[in-house]
């Protein structure tokens, strides 16, 4: 399976699986093309800001192991693992679905030691 398959979240317009240094291993769309911005996403913490998919997101809370941020009508969901991070950007109204999708892919990666 290609790395892109691990970030093809149905509820997201953009998604990424990346190393902790921000190197994208696979992407859905092109919203995570900047390695420097990605590195900040991989280390995201509530109360901070990150850039992705052409927007700046304010990270407002954590739910179900994910960090959640908002920018207008869009949201970002970030899940950091031991060796990598997953992130997806989509409509704010699909936050719950996006968290579930990110966590499903994260569970498979965790079983593989990532």
Characterize the structure shown.
- The longest helix has 17 residues, at 95-111.
- The protein has two helices and seven strands; from the N terminus they run E-E-H-E-E-E-E-E-H.
- Strand 1 and strand 2 form a beta hairpin.
- The chain is globular and about 35 Å long.
- The protein is α+β, with helices and mostly antiparallel strands.
- The model has no long low-confidence stretch (mean pLDDT 96).
Distinctive features:
alpha+beta; 7 strands; 2 helices; globular; single chain; 114 residues; seven-stranded antiparallel beta sheet; 22% helix
Report the structural category.
alpha+beta
| Form type | globular
Instruction: Quickly count the helices.
Output: 2
Q: Biggest sheet, open or closed, and with what strands and sense?
A: 7 strands, antiparallel
Mean pLDDT level: 96
Q: Termini separation (Å)?
A: 15 Å
Strand runs, count: 7
State the helical fraction. 10-25%
Brief digest:
By secondary structure, this protein is an alpha+beta fold. The chain has 2 helices and 7 strands.
Topology:
Blueprint: E1 14-19, E2 24-28, H1 35-42, E3 49-52, E4 55-63, E5 66-71, E6 74-80, E7 84-91, H2 95-111
Antiparallel strand pairs: 1-2, 1-7, 3-4, 4-5, 5-6, 6-7
